[in-house]
Amino acid sequence: MSRLLYRCDNLAEIENTYKDLRDAGVEDGHLHVIAKKDGQLLRRGLNAANSWYKTDILNGWSQGVRYGLAAGILASLFFAAFDVFSGYYGFLGILFTLVVFTGFGVWLGGFIGLQSKNHALKDFYHFVDEGEYLLLVDLSLSEAKHVKSVLNYHPSLKLVSDEVETTIPLNIMERMH
């Protein structure tokens, strides 16, 4: 799945584009708008981008797994090498250490990711800070030409990227608000 990212400073134009894309067959779950205030989007029936899109929680979790697992391996080696638990540190101790450190890494990485802007969209958040709107359009490669032709009827929308990839692992996460 590919993602197009457009910016516009006019909410009415975003709303018109959104309606045209839905009329052209783009599913509602494939359209997301990022704005300073989500309430105005929701009142107009637009699909405001949720936390899975706006924050870096998924990236934080994946980094937390890597760092937590690495720390767990190092801690296990330390505990075993220096006989910290007086000979009672066997396979279950190593497994427990790995689970605890990895779990802590996932928790900490998710917490940090929740406080951070999505790394894939970080370069474009200054548009939102300036009062503009970002329209994210998810599409397959076969739909790209058709969707771009619909978007050509809206010249006030500026394409800022067609290479942004944000990973949302489950379809239900795209619709959560």
Description:
With 177 residues, this protein is of the alpha+beta class. The protein contains 8 helices and 4 strands, in the order E-H-E-H-H-H-H-H-E-H-E-H. Strands 2-3-1-4 form a 4-stranded antiparallel beta sheet. Helix 4 (57-81) packs antiparallel against helix 5 (91-115). It is elongated, with a radius of gyration of 22 Å.
List the helices and strands and how they pair.
Blueprint: E1 2-8, H1 11-23, E2 31-34, H2 38-43, H3 51-54, H4 57-81, H5 91-115, H6 125-129, E3 133-139, H7 141-151, E4 158-161, H8 171-175
Antiparallel strand pairs: 1-3, 1-4, 2-3
Helix pairs in contact: 4-5
Gist of the model:
This protein is an alpha+beta fold.
List its salient traits.
4 strands; single chain; 12% strand; alpha+beta; elongated; 4-stranded antiparallel β-sheet
Specify Rg, calculated over alpha carbons: 22 Å
Strand order of the largest sheet: 2-3-1-4
Structural class estimated from helices and strands: alpha+beta
Which stretches are poorly predicted, pLDDT < 50 over at least 5 residues?
Answer: none
